[in-house]
Amino acid sequence: MTTTQTLAAANRSDAPGSKQSRGVRRDGIRRGLVPFGYLSPTVILLLVLMVIPIVMVLSYSVMDNVIMKKNPQFVGFKHYIDILASESFWGAASNTVFFTVVSVVAHLVLGLAFAMMLNSTLLGNRTKAIFRTIYVLPWLFTIAIIAVLWRLLLEPNGVVNYLLMSSGMAGSQIEWLSSPETALFAVTFINIWSGYPFYMTSLLAGLQGIPTELYEAAEVDGANGWQRFMRITLPQLKPIIISMALLDVIWTTQQFALIWMTTGGGPLGTTEMLSTFTYKLAFSKYQFGTASAAAAIVLVISMVLAFFYVRAQKARD
Amino acid sequence: MLTRVQRRLVAKTALLVALVVGALFAGLPVLWMLSSSFKPNTDIFQYPPRLIPQTFTFDAYTTIFTDPTKVQFFINSYFVSLSVTFLTLLVGVLAAYAFSRFEFPFKSVLNVVIVSVQAVPPITLLIPYFGLIIFLGLYNTYQGLILTYMVFTLPYAIIMMTGYFNTLPRELDEAVKVDGGSSWTALWRVLIPISVPGLVSVGIYTFMIAWNEYLFALTLTKTVEMRTVPIGIQLLMGQHSYEWNQMMSMSILGCIPVLLLFLFFQRYFIGGMTAGAVKN
Q1: Which of A46, A75, A169, B270 could form a disulfide with A50 if both were Cys (CB 3.0 to 4.6 A apart)?
Q2: Overall number of domains in chain A
Q3: Dihedrals phi, psi of A75, to nearest 5 degrees
Q4: Is the same domain home to A108 and A44?
Q5: Same domain, A269 and A142
Q6: Could you tell me which CATH number the domain at B67-273 has?
Q7: Do A8 and B150 touch (CB under 8 A)?
Q8: Least CB-CB distance to A5: which of B47, B182, B219?
Q9: Do A192 and A223 belong together in one domain?
Q10: For residue A6, what pLDDT is reported?
Q11: Whole-number Cα distances in Å, A226 to A219, B11, B25, B107, B124
């Protein structure tokens, strides 16, 4: 940016010599360029690593023999038709919907319940601080770590099965992550564990922002706890809840690392998500054309969700 | 009928019980991780399981600290994450300044682009990146990872910092211009020094994104000396034997920077996550 400064200095020094009007016009152009100077690193980065890749993936999706061979051919919407006709795509899509809906609802319920417990006036501040720190723990770990930790806990001869069996809740060792009946529930549970603290902290901040007069007035009117919750707490938190839930839907539909490191989409595709489905098409089967079509479908889904998110954010402002 | 005091006592007991149950749900897995990291690998699945290690050992930690490959995972992660944080703040602040203080053509278009690229799924970008990063000669390099992560961290940084700058009165930078200073001077001498809380929030968020990233680190690096911590942990899951105790100690070591950020900057942590609440 030193160039901007020297440019400015040069401009200033020759301004008196030139005609007044020309000087003003050049000054105006120069000033018009200043914001683009500040923006140029961002624009270049987003152009090269965001706009161009999206154009590339869209063009791959209508081509055959991309990346792997030198002479790609245009095949139109063939890959899209193939994908939409394939059973494994719809399997992955329905797993993703289950995983996302259950995760988001559970995040919200747990996050709100914990936030309200931590906001209670019945307990001292120190007690609440200790519990808040414990409750936030899952947030401190990256998904890769969470995946490894839960693999350890959910091993057939691991501690979860031990606790279930010694308390009589399970008759025999359950292969949580490797049996088709339980794998999807297990990965969803792990995702719930890892994701609720984000809601909890945001909702706690939201709860602390609700004016206490509202509750006092409700108490005077004789409202019970449930009525206060439904009439005051929920409406007051609604904007935060809506934007967080939409953000969470966007993130959860894109979840890759957790699935990849726990089940890899198996067993028998019972935990296959759109992300792992696309990844495998590209990097295990090297069908980059089909994979790009799947990636484009995922992009469209995310953009639709983002549209709702932006609209909710606008409504909030 | 219970008296008011008794009802309060019952409510308080019920709340404490619920809180303890919740704390077990949140904390026990983490406690188990900590305990397993101090066990010899042969004791990981001992029966019955013990929360307090029967044989307490630092073996898992010393193995990691004395293995240059594993130390390298941490060096890579720190280097990449800190670089991403620094560069995102730098580039993001410049763009946010333009958005906050200037009018220019296509401003609203650019704004919509920056908001919406946040929702672009990583998996969509991964396929073209593979070719693009190789083409740019950035495959298996720090630069490749750093630039990639910036694409994901920059939009958020710009949005947050624009919001922050908008809350600062324009008279501040006007005063600099009256004294003959350029907009550049106004940014560095006046706006940035008073924007530290906003920068800290955005910095923490950025660092965490980079520190936790998995998909691109997996695909855009190849050799073991370029791997970051999330990939390094996975590499401990061998074909035949799992070094569970080392995985757990690496997990503990891997959460330390985030834990420290959380302990020292708790206020900014939450501030950074709930948009618009940064300035208090």
Answers
A1: A46
A2: 2
A3: -125, 10
A4: no
A5: yes
A6: 1.10.3720.10
A7: no
A8: B182
A9: yes
A10: 38
A11: 12, 14, 26, 47, 45
Give the tokens for residue A165: 């069996």
| In a domain? residue A71 | no
Query: What CATH number is attached to the domain comprising A310?
Result: 1.10.3720.10
Alpha carbons B37 and B250: distance in angstroms, whole number:
8
- Chain B CB contacts of A255 under 8 Å are none
Q: Chain B within 8 Å of A155 (Cβ-Cβ)?
A: yes
From chain A, the residues in CB contact with B92 under 8 A are: 42
| Residue A69 within any structural domain of the chain | no
Mean pLDDT of B83-108: 93
Answer whether B22 sits within 8 Å of A117, measured CB to CB: yes
CA distance B151 to B87: 11
Residues A26 and A173 in one domain: no
The tens digit of pLDDT for each residue in A275-308 reads: 999 999 998 888 888 999 999 999 999 999 888 8
A117 and B15 in contact by Cβ < 8 A?
yes
**What is the ipTM, given to two decimal places?**
0.88
Counting Cα atoms < 13 Å in the Cβ hemisphere of A150 gives 29
Alpha carbons A264 and B121: distance in angstroms, whole number: 19
Report how far residue A147's alpha carbon sits from residue A260's, in angstroms, rounded to the nearest whole number. 9
Counting every residue written for chain B, the total comes to 280
Taking only the tens place, the pLDDT of each residue in A11-41 is: 443 444 444 455 556 666 777 788 889 999 9
For A129, the domain range is: 80-316
Mean pLDDT (chain B, rounded): 87
